[in-house]
Specification:
By secondary structure, the chain is α/β, with parallel strands linked by helices. Helices cover about 20% and strands about 35% of the residues.
Length: about 250
């Protein structure tokens, strides 16, 4: 994994994958100069890039939503945010308006989020677009048939925001070492619940688990700050999980 650099990438596709949520695919424009061939380690799953907003010096940080194994392409997953005035946020509005063929300036990679040490089990907890770095990590380890028993716990307000759900459900069917749980806090009346799809918040996943369950387990958490804080509190105070076994990123 190299040091952060400034580079350009071209928009390949910019599609809605959920309400007000974009998945944007980019192709590295400077891959030859950067020495970034396919399957390189230009970035690590879990890291982020800074996007330079066109015609300004303003930058916004977005987690990479794809494995480095698909380079020279990479993906971002961005929720379009709105100000009280109804105007789109500067960064997400810029991403929302990108068109195929448009050239975008980046810097990076940055960050240390992700798997830190080999453990028998890994629990990944995400809300909203906090799923982006989780998807990158999962895409990468799935190619090795999940050598670590991995559980993904994904929380959304409404079912329509459960982007990548089909991907994760397909992986669960294919790999015995991968489990996927979806928590919906504001479900519609016609939502179908099951052992994998539940009403509530991601914190409820931890309620029935004993402290012994978390032995030799790594927990990585990404999403809104309130959720991250609450899950960390549960793990520390109720499950006796050592803080060195927890990796978090809040935004």
């Amino acid at each position: 994994m190299g040091v952060p650099v400034t580079f350009f990438a071209t928009v390949v596709e910019n599609t809605y994958i959920a309400k007000e949520t974009r998945e944007t695919t980019f192709l590295l424009s400077d891959s030859d100069e950067l020495g970034v061939p396919e399957n390189s380690d230009f970035f690590k799953s879990g890291q982020f890039f800074n996007v330079v907003i066109e015609d300004s010096s303003v930058m916004r940080a977005y987690s990479i939503a794809s494995s480095p194994k698909i380079l020279p392409e990479f993906k971002l997953c961005v929720k379009v945010l709105y100000k009280d005035s109804g105007e789109k946020g500067l960064g997400s509005g810029f991403i929302d308006g990108l068109e195929k063929g448009q050239r975008v300036k980046f810097s990076g990679p940055f960050g240390h989020f992700g798997r830190k040490f080999p453990a028998k089990k890994c629990i990944m907890v995400a809300t909203g677009t906090g799923i982006a770095p989780m998807k990158a990590i999962i895409d990468e380890v799935s190619e090795d048939d999940f050598p670590t028993t991995t559980t993904l716990v994904f929380g959304v307000r409404e079912e329509e925001y459960a982007f990548y759900r089909e991907n994760f459900e397909a992986l669960e069917k294919k790999h015995r070492n991968f489990s996927f749980f979806l928590y919906i806090s504001r479900p519609e009346q016609d939502t179908v619940f099951s052992e994998q799809v539940k009403k509530g918040r991601v914190t409820e996943f931890f309620t029935p688990l004993s402290p012994e369950f978390f032995l030799d387990t790594e927990i990585i958490i990404c999403g809104n700050p309130a959720m991250v804080k609450e899950v960390r509190k549960i793990l520390k105070n109720e499950k006796s999980v050592d803080k060195k076994n927890i990796c978090v990123e809040a935004y």
